[in-house]
């Protein structure tokens, strides 16, 4: 992993590479010795977000998640030393993100533009909003391990028990825990010590999108996934934690079925990923969802209160389509670890595969059937295998599930 710069010019120079060549969203950078696969980089003077996807001697191939027009040979490439990660914590619901978890409303408010400015940096979770935090059963001196629930937050009337989890790889003895009160997601509320090293934790943590969140045990699915369409529930039933495909040609109504599943299904949380779909379809989702409501305990609640939207339409950079799928499944796994049943809509996975085909072609890789890369099956498997019902890490014991509903368009002959 790249060394962290301490402010000296020598370490700053050691962190900087230079653009060697540009081909659409694929950039080759030189002087990148020490970088790691899937490391996050900032490319050019605008600091465009990119990810290392191939390493060859001192050159690294980077897929850039923003428009690369204007990049020139010799522009700086800054290594971050971290993989592409998402922020997980209170505030995910009712938010609309792009493919790399940048909140679109916050970008609009900050830039005053209807377009996403290149290289803009906006936090995924609101750093100013305060949340009502209640500590759990843990107190100073208790041992705590990854996945343990050490507090809850009231997020909204549909998600009134957003559980605060210790990150899966953390463990130690509690030396300080905050009292009940209102805090921001950045404030450090928990301090733990392990082998003489103290670490602090807030209500949010980050997780790499390409790494599945660990679980205690995978369970066999035993509960029906009610999608709310009687013809589908009777003729094509599914289970919570299953993977569902909606095949159909262009304009046949796949998106309509995805949207109706989002509205009527018996899931606790919906993660809707518009991956490469038409911009007007995503705009329709953004207009309709705030007006839709569901009956919970005799009261009507807006469906947006249990929904997280990731909009990565066909007119957005092609490389971010791949990232949007991983961003969505990581957010879904986070709510699964809280003991929720999550439904993730991928609309559509075939356009995701087309994005892989375009990137593969630019990389000069050997094409397989219909021009798709030979590793398409492995990429699809790495996404679909993250669905399922499982027992979460930590205490108290809880079960959650991730159900994937993916729209698939047949190839045009």
Automatic annotation (TrEMBL):
Q: Which GO terms describe its molecular function?
A: ATP binding; proton-transporting ATPase activity, rotational mechanism
Pfam families cross-referenced by the UniProt entry:
ATP-synt_ab, ATP-synt_ab_N, ATP-synt_ab_Xtn
Please name the InterPro entries in this protein's record: ATP-synth_a_Xtn, ATP_synth_asu-like_sf, ATPase_F1/V1/A1_a/bsu_N, ATPase_F1/V1/A1_a/bsu_N_sf, ATPase_F1/V1/A1_a/bsu_nucl-bd, P-loop_NTPase, V-ATPase_asu
The record's Gene Ontology cellular component field reads: fungal-type vacuole membrane; vacuolar proton-transporting V-type ATPase, V1 domain
- Tell me the enzyme class: translocase
Q: Where in the cell is it found?
A: Vacuole membrane
Q: Where is the ATPsynthase alpha/beta subunit barrel-sandwich domain?
A: 122-210
Q: Which family does it belong to?
A: Belongs to the ATPase alpha/beta chains family.
Q: What main location does UniProt list?
A: membrane
Give the way it sits in the membrane: Peripheral membrane protein
**In the Enzyme Commission scheme, what number(s) does this protein have?**
7.1.2.2
Example GO biological process = cellular response to alkaline pH
The molecule here is called V-type proton ATPase catalytic subunit A
The ATPase F1/V1/A1 complex alpha/beta subunit N-terminal domain covers 19-81
The UniProt record lists the ATPase F1/V1/A1 complex alpha/beta subunit nucleotide-binding domain at: 228-411
Catalytically driven reaction(s): ATP + H2O + 4 H(+)(in) = ADP + phosphate + 5 H(+)(out)
Q: Which UniProt keywords apply?
A: ATP-binding, Hydrogen ion transport, Ion transport, Nucleotide-binding, Translocase, Transport
């Amino acid at each position: 992993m790249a060394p962290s710069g301490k402010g000296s010019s020598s370490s700053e120079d050691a962190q900087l590479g230079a653009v060697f060549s540009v081909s659409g969203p694929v950039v080759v950078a030189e002087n990148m010795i020490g970088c790691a696969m899937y490391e996050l980089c900032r490319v050019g003077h605008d600091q465009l977000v990119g990810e290392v996807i191939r390493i060859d001697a001192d050159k690294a191939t980077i897929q850039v998640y923003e428009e690369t027009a204007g990049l020139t040979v010799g522009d700086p490439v800054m290594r971050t030393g971290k993989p592409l990660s998402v922020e997980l914590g209170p505030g995910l619901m009712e938010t609309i993100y792009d493919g790399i978890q940048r909140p679109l409303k916050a970008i609009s408010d900050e830039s005053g533009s209807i377009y996403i400015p290149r290289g803009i940096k906006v936090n995924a979770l609101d750093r100013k909003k305060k949340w009502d935090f209640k500590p759990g059963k843990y107190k100073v001196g208790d041992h705590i391990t990854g996945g343990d629930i050490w507090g809850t937050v009231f997020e909204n009337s549909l998600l009134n028990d957003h559980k605060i989890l210790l990150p899966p790889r953390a463990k130690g003895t509690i030396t300080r825990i905050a009292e009940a009160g209102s805090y921001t997601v950045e404030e450090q509320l928990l301090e733990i010590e392990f082998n003489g090293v103290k670490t602090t934790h807030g209500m949010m943590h980050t997780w790499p999108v390409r790494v599945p969140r660990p679980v205690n045990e995978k369970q066999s699915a035993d509960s029906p996934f009610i999608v709310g369409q009687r013809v589908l529930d009777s003729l094509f039933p599914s289970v919570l934690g299953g993977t569902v495909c909606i095949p159909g040609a262009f304009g046949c109504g796949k998106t309509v079925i995805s949207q109706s599943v989002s509205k009527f299904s018996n899931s606790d949380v919906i993660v809707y990923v518009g991956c490469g779909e038409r911009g007007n379809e995503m705009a329709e989702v953004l207009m309709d969802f705030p007006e839709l409501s569901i009956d919970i305990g005799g009261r009507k609640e807006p469906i947006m209160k249990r929904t997280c939207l990731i909009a990565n339409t066909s007119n957005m950079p092609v490389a971010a389509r791949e990232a949007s799928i991983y961003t969505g499944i990581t957010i879904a796994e986070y709510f699964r670890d809280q003991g929720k049943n999550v439904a993730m809509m991928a609309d559509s996975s075939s356009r995701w595969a087309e994005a892989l085909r375009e990137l593969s072609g630019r990389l000069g890789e050997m094409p397989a059937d219909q021009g798709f890369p030979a590793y398409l099956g492995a990429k699809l498997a790495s996404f679909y295998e993250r669905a399922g019902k499982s027992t979460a890490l930590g205490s108290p014991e809880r079960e959650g599930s991730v159900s994937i509903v993916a729209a698939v368009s047949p190839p045009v002959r």
